[in-house]
Amino acid sequence: MSIPETAINARPQPSVLTRHDFPAGFRFGVATSSYQIEGAAHEDGRGPSIWDTFCREPGRISDGSSGDIACDHYHRWPEDLDLIRSLGVDAYRFSVAWPRIQPTGSGAVNAAGLDFYERLVDGMLERGLSPYATLYHWDLPQALQDAGGWDNRETAHRFAEYARIFAERLGDRVRSYATLNEPWCSSILSYQIGEHAPGLRDRRAALSAAHHLLLGHGEAVLALRSVVQQAEVGIVLNLNPAYPATTSPADAAAARSFDGEFNRWFLEPLLVGEYPRDTWEAYGQDVPDVHPGDLQTIRQPLDFMGVNYYSRGLISASGPARAEQSEFTAMDWEVYPQGLTDLLVRLKTDYLVPPIYITENGAAYHDVLEGDDVHDTARVRYFETHLNAVRAAADQGVDVRGYFAWSLMDNFEWAHGYSKRFGLVYVDYGDQRRILKDSAKWYRSLASSEARDD
Ligand code: IFM
């Protein structure tokens, strides 16, 4: 869809949404992840991760880059926390790099790694920001990959051990823990589709990885709760609601099958304690080796469910379809805010779902830096329409507690390198300057609006 010239030239407008449009106590935040922003890949005892390895393999990353330097957040974190504070938000969702804490994924702990996250968390608390920690956002220690990665059941146990180590040090200051970010990506996208590290194309290995990720989640929940009595523990899923492209029964069946593989394969073990039967049968010989007791371990009571929403799946019997009349982002993802309302209402209707946080939502666009400005009108509209979608779900009784914009700043977008910009804040990778886009100013006007007092 083309955007009118007048909209392109418009100057930043404050948000018409305010905190009063959301439930009492609703939290606004921004999100990032370790490998995407930290850089300092070889400093202070950090061990190599699967992404360090993957980035060095020719052809894996579209611009040939890596997270070696990224946004240099490892060194610039005080300014970055000041920046977050200046946006008026309540909370910061960050992730912890496992190879900084345990360089080989097991055994010896690297004190300098824990020290870094302690400084970071203390810095948040000093600025009045609540830390929302994610323990695994894809940077698996390479040594564990060498032993089979998530295809190896042992990795689940190692993950729980690492979660315990982190909580023993930071548990007096970090209350909110998400175990995993988007296990669909770290299993299917990484072991079956081959687009993410370790870049395999093996469905059996992918389903085994997904099972061990979920098992690691369950074991980590137990470990976290045993260390931090007040812990609020959850998991973050990327959910992609599926819509049939037409009213034909064949498209409806295809959409149901997509939903099984993408959404229910993760939701149901976590919330029901079973894999979805239709999808299990469709996977045939490739299903994972589930040991007695695994599903009980996986189905831990959760304090929250993190939902990452970007777009919907429009599905036909012959594969993904495209709604040509729609607007698409620079990722070629359809802008479809109604999907977020539908998804949230469905989670409430179909499952005994815990309170929900939107842990990621945002869009990449082709931003243009003009002096000290980026007039990212389309991104402002994306945030506004999706926040309205969250509000609509809350009005329908969904217990949604907060919203984290993805992302605080432009960063390393995995296989796309630095070619896709998701930030509220523009990063000039030449000199690491941070420049507020119009969307950051818009979000600030919302987050800085007067809080509800009921
Ligand atoms: O950048 C990623 C993030 O790491 C996980 N969720 C989706 C984002 C955009 O692709």
From TrEMBL:
<feature type="active site" description="Proton donor">
    <location>
        <position position="182"/>
    </location>
</feature>
<feature type="binding site">
    <location>
        <position position="406"/>
    </location>
    <ligand>
        <name>substrate</name>
    </ligand>
</feature>
<protein>
    <recommendedName>
        <fullName>Beta-glucosidase</fullName>
        <ecNumber>3.2.1.21</ecNumber>
    </recommendedName>
</protein>
<keyword id="KW-0136">Cellulose degradation</keyword>
<feature type="binding site">
    <location>
        <position position="310"/>
    </location>
    <ligand>
        <name>substrate</name>
    </ligand>
</feature>
<dbReference type="Pfam" id="PF00232">
    <property type="entry name" value="Glyco_hydro_1"/>
</dbReference>
<keyword id="KW-0119">Carbohydrate metabolism</keyword>
<dbReference type="InterPro" id="IPR017853">
    <property type="entry name" value="GH"/>
</dbReference>
<dbReference type="GO" id="GO:0005829">
    <property type="term" value="C:cytosol"/>
</dbReference>
<comment type="similarity">
    <text>Belongs to the glycosyl hydrolase 1 family.</text>
</comment>
<keyword id="KW-0624">Polysaccharide degradation</keyword>
<feature type="binding site">
    <location>
        <position position="137"/>
    </location>
    <ligand>
        <name>substrate</name>
    </ligand>
</feature>
<dbReference type="InterPro" id="IPR033132">
    <property type="entry name" value="GH_1_N_CS"/>
</dbReference>
<keyword id="KW-0326">Glycosidase</keyword>
<feature type="binding site">
    <location>
        <position position="36"/>
    </location>
    <ligand>
        <name>substrate</name>
    </ligand>
</feature>
<feature type="binding site">
    <location>
        <position position="181"/>
    </location>
    <ligand>
        <name>substrate</name>
    </ligand>
</feature>
<feature type="binding site">
    <location>
        <begin position="413"/>
        <end position="414"/>
    </location>
    <ligand>
        <name>substrate</name>
    </ligand>
</feature>
<keyword id="KW-0378">Hydrolase</keyword>
<comment type="pathway">
    <text>Glycan metabolism; cellulose degradation.</text>
</comment>
<feature type="active site" description="Nucleophile">
    <location>
        <position position="360"/>
    </location>
</feature>
<dbReference type="InterPro" id="IPR018120">
    <property type="entry name" value="Glyco_hydro_1_AS"/>
</dbReference>
<dbReference type="GO" id="GO:0030245">
    <property type="term" value="P:cellulose catabolic process"/>
</dbReference>
<dbReference type="InterPro" id="IPR017736">
    <property type="entry name" value="Glyco_hydro_1_beta-glucosidase"/>
</dbReference>
<dbReference type="GO" id="GO:0008422">
    <property type="term" value="F:beta-glucosidase activity"/>
</dbReference>
<dbReference type="InterPro" id="IPR001360">
    <property type="entry name" value="Glyco_hydro_1"/>
</dbReference>
